[in-house]
Amino acid sequence: MKELNLAILGLGTVGSGVVKIIEENHQQIKDTMNKDLNIKKILVRDVNKSRPISTARYELTDNIEDIIEDDTIDIVIEVMGNVSPTVDWLKQLIQNGKHVITANKDLLAIHLKELEDLAEQQGVALKFEASVAGGIPIVNAINNGLNANNISKFMGIFNGTSNFILSKMTRDRAPFDEALTEAQELGFAESDPTDDVEGIDAARKVVITSYLSFNQVINLKDVTCRGISDVSIGDIQAAEAFDFKIKLIGKGTYANGKVTSSVEPTLIHNTHQLAAVEDEYNAIYVIGDAVGETMFYGKGAGSLATGSAVVSDLLNVALLFESKLHTLPPHFELKTEETKEMIESDAPVTLKEKESFYIVLQNANQDVEQLEKSLKQDLPFHKSLKLVNRDEQTVAALVVGIDEAPGNILSTKGYEIEKIYPVEGV
Ligand SMILES: NC(=O)c1ccc[n+]([C@@H]2O[C@H](COP(=O)([O-])OP(=O)(O)OC[C@H]3O[C@@H](n4cnc5c(N)ncnc54)[C@H](OP(=O)(O)O)[C@@H]3O)[C@@H](O)[C@H]2O)c1
After folding, report:
1. Do 183 and 200 reside in the same domain of the chain?
2. According to the UniProt entry, what is the EC number of this protein (predicted)?
3. Of 43, 157, 254, 259, which sees the most CB atoms within 10 A?
């Protein structure tokens, strides 16, 4: 029986999960692949550090050249993180004819297309299932399961840390700082939580998911990105009064020939499936023209959940390896000649469908009824408007089915806007 030699870069949370899954299922993997899978080398920073798994049978190295230059290694799993020097190492590995599997969303949000093109040139596979929503097989679902569809929209909870914090704020009325401290104590948040709570981690996943869904490269800086640190208990209560929950939603839409992408606190109606996604869980909702609405739910992080996605890539690469089918065909392209022209034009994006917004306004001692009357007159055509007192100084308004984004219009008319969040599921 032939051997398939594997190297793993990184033996932290995800790396240990990958090794554990491979060890526990060694015989099944061997039977499925008809090859003996051999973990030949593992790259770490510190070869003497004590590890949560036994490493006695593996060759640990702190020198990447030991792996790049080893012609017997067929597949490399990168679970070490960071953009630099990792991206240069991945390029060298691909150039040396090795298939690469990575969980590294930080790196892919910038270099995915470049690495994919290089892998195609070299005739090797580049797989990254674990980079979006950890254990949820969303990459494979969009690339393969939904490849008979034109995808017009996806939206989802891409970050477990912020979802845990918002769930805690909603359930226990715990303020943001207290909920964050509990997330850190339970290991759901890093000691520096900036990327998670400010939406940056989710934005990276939105970049990758937009590329998969719409076949278009978007830049991280083009994702409108707002985190949850300004969500207050007052907002959560106002949202509840309107029958909504607040979630940090990453979204990509393809409308008027343009991709629009964002990560923002969003009001989700309680009847929408995303409203029921609590704590550290992730969920992604995708709309395809043939299939309609779909939703994928599960753990977005963790040693074994993320390891599951990495090992799934490993099996796919190993199985496709012999048949030379390294890249399955992507789903249908959404771009027609007409939409390509629109993508290249600088015309401003207008709201295609009627949209809905949650608006917090300073209430300069007016009563709510008076404010409602003036808003009804001042807002462009809208289907419905509801108001509740948010606190002593502010009023929260829910505007449903409006023709134009309300921010500029209200500002020019002298309203003092504290915040505007999008609304979904109405
Ligand atoms: N954690 C999750 O649940 C999760 C979920 C989805 C995706 N991811 C992605 O998976 C990747 C790994 O995450 P993780 O949580 O497993 O990280 P981690 O626990 O910090 O582990 C990183 C590992 O990489 C090694 N490493 C880091 N820099 C290195 C360098 N320059 N040279 C050699 N070895 C180096 C470290 O070696 P030492 O042990 O010797 O320090 C460590 O073993 C990241 O890209 C992350 O974004 C993680």
Report:
1. yes
2. 1.1.1.3
3. 157
Nearest CA among 199, 205, 299 for reference residue 252:
205
167 annotated as a binding-site residue: no
Name the band, by pLDDT with cuts 50, 70 and 90, for residue 367: confident
Q: Is the CB of 49 under 6 A from ligand 1?
A: yes
Phi-psi region of 401 (alpha: psi -120 to 50; beta: other; left: phi over 0): left
- 169 within ligand 1 shell (Cβ under 6 A): no
Q: Is the CB of 200 under 6 A from ligand 1?
A: no
Residues 169 and 125 in one domain: no
Same domain, 94 and 20: yes
Asked if residue 17 has its Cβ within 6 Å of ligand 1, the reply is no
* Exposed e or buried b per residue across 77-106, where buried means at least 16 C-beta atoms within 10 angstroms of its C-beta: bbbbbeeeebbebbbbbbebebbbbbbbbb
> Ligand 1 mean position to 78 CA, how many Å?
8
Residue 309 has what pLDDT?
A: 97
| Omega of the bond leading into 265 within 30 degrees of 0 (cis) | no
| Longest CA pairwise span in the chain (Å) | 81
Q: Whose CA is nearest to atom 18 of ligand 1?
A: 12
Residue 104: CB within 6 Å of ligand 1? yes
CA distances from 211 to 6, 109, 216, 221, 256 (A): 28, 10, 5, 15, 17
pLDDT digits (tens, 9 = 90+) for 275-290: 999 999 999 999 999 9
Kindly report the CATH number assigned to the domain that includes residue 399: 3.30.70.3100
30 is catalytic: no
Question: What residues form DSSP beta bridges with 61?
Answer: 43
Co-location of 74 and 215 in the same domain: no
User: How far apart (Å, rounded) are the C-alpha atoms in residues 382 and 406?
Assistant: 10
What is the domain extent for residue 101?
2-133+304-319
Burial track 17-55 (b if 16+ CB lie within 10 A, e otherwise) = bbbbbbeeeeeebeeebebebebbbbbbeeeeeebeeeb
Residue in 14, 43, 128 to alter for ligand 1 test, most ligand atoms within 8 A of Cβ: 14
pLDDT digits (tens, 9 = 90+) for 20-54: 999 999 999 998 888 899 999 999 999 999 999 99
